[in-house]
Structure formats: C-alpha cells, structure tokens
Amino acid sequence: MAKKVIGQLKLQIPAGGANPSPPVGPALGQRGINIMEFCKAFNAKTQEMDKQAKIPTIITYYADKSFTFEIKQPTASFFLKQAAGLKPVGKRNRPKGSEAPGRVVAATITAAQVRQIAEAKMKDLNANDIEGAMNIILGSAKSIGIEVKG
Question: pTM to 2 decimals?
Fold first, then answer.
C-alpha cells in the first residue's frame, strides 16, 4: 500500500547549502519533516553542483513523517547570468542582471547560448519543443536585462 501524501513543498535552495536556518529549517519544521535528515540528503545530492546555483526542489511529505524530494536543474536566470559572464556583486556575492530591464542592457548573449540553455532546461520547462523552450528562456533573459543577438 502506498504512503499517504500530506503535501508538497517547493523551495529554491543553494546547491550544497541546505541548513536548519531560515528559510529551509522553519519551512520543514512546520510540516514535521526531519530537518537534519533532509539537509544531509540534499547536500549529498547537490555537492557536485555549482555552489552559486539555486536549485528548485520539490519535497513531498507523508503521514508517517517521511519525505522524498526531487531536485531540478538550476534556475534559467543562473544559466543566463553564467553565459553572459556577469560577475558576482553585493552583500550576497551573486551575479546581478540589469537594474532597469528593457532600458539598460546588463550583458549580451547569442542565440546559440540560448539554445544550449533551453536544451539543458527542457525537461523542467513547460514546452513541447526546443523553440518553445527557447522562447521561455528569451523571456527570462529580457526580464533580467540580457540582450540576445542573432
């Protein structure tokens, strides 16, 4: 007999950076999920990934207080900023896009780079073909002030 699913939780957690402090700890603790068990399992699964990447994670928790989790590809904005070569800035030491998207261009990438990103993210996107995935990535690029040439 299958376990009774109580709910799902979606979080974006830095690769290898799950710890009991906010936002991960309180989100899991409220639902009765063993925080340290999740943190150890997540960090082990994402240790090979870039530490700057935020990993979308879906945690399914059950009535018996157990859980399973699924990690997805890093966010499209992470791939776009990496392809554009944007340097980390600010308190959190993360790459930033344009402060005024649509008016100020933060960087420029090629259509071939957009295609590469779309192929990498294809299974996580709501698209039927690569052109649809590219359009989603183009929209993300526009929203963070990255211009696409070609």
Answer: 0.81
